[in-house]
Amino acid sequence: MDESTVFDLWSPADSIWSPWVKPVLFAHLPRRLPIITQLPTPDFSWVPPVGQGKAIVVDLAGMDSVYIGLALAKKGYRPVPLFNSCPLPTAFVQERNLSLEATKELTRVDVESILATLVQGCDSLHQLDLPDNAPPAFLLDANRQGNSLAFRIVPENLFDNRSVVFITDFPSVNFFTEQRINSVIVVRQSDRKFASDLTYILNTWQKAKLSLSYKPLSDPRPIQPLKIWAFPWLGIWVRLIANLTLHKRPNGGFGGFIPSSSSG
Fewer CB within 10 A of the end CB, N or C, for the chain? Predict the structure, then answer.
């Protein structure tokens, strides 16, 4: 499937949430992708019915985020991909005839599996007739920062595609309010150890009186209330570290090669 076909399915023109869908990954289609084995859907009895003013943020590793987003779509939520990490440039892969395994080994964050799951999920998404104003489920890659955003030595010649998410990547609180969204549920696998970028965003929403809660998929208990504490300067710190340590691309997204120390 080509870029426009896949992107249009995930970002339909009439959906009120489509302006926030990130085109970063879709822009690298078509390309050779791994075949993804579908994961079992976890217990979704906790998912609130649509119409209760809930938005969901799915903060799971890689393709798991997409799978849960597709499962939430069957519950009436609109999945909104917010993936900012770029894959290896298609031309680079084709010129060197790199295998899928070699492509994965050359990148700091595996996004090939995310892109493959987005493509494979198109048929399922196409069969759903979601309303234009269906409540959103924003999809994040919990591995987007690699191991850390901290200053560290990155192996030479590696494609460093670590990324962050900014509060401007989400709708404003005013827009949420206009759509009668007054509560946000954060879905994690097993804990609430949010990365610094998401911590800042959640704290900002909390200050704006959005109700927060979280749901670890590995925990059978119901949705739990969530309170976020953050340093006042955390947002500035995230942007500073992102500017100093990440490779932001002029046309959007994050990704760049670490030069060899002998180059230049």
Answer: C
Helix and strand counts by DSSP (H, E) for the chain: 9, 8
Mean pLDDT by 10 residues, the chain (264 residues): 91 97 93 86 91 97 95 97 94 90 89 95 94 97 78 63 96 97 96 93 97 95 95 93 90 84 48
Q: List 248's β-bridge partners, or say none.
A: 254
- For the entire predicted model, the pTM comes to 0.94
Say if strands 183-188 and 159-160 run parallel, antiparallel, or are unpaired: unpaired
Helix, strand, coil percentages in the chain from 3-state DSSP, rounded to 5? 35, 15, 55
Q: How far is CA 138 from CA 40, 59, 69, 121, 235, in A?
A: 20, 8, 8, 16, 20
DSSP secondary structure, 136-176, as one string? EEEEEETTTTTT-SSS----TT-EE------GGGS--HHHH
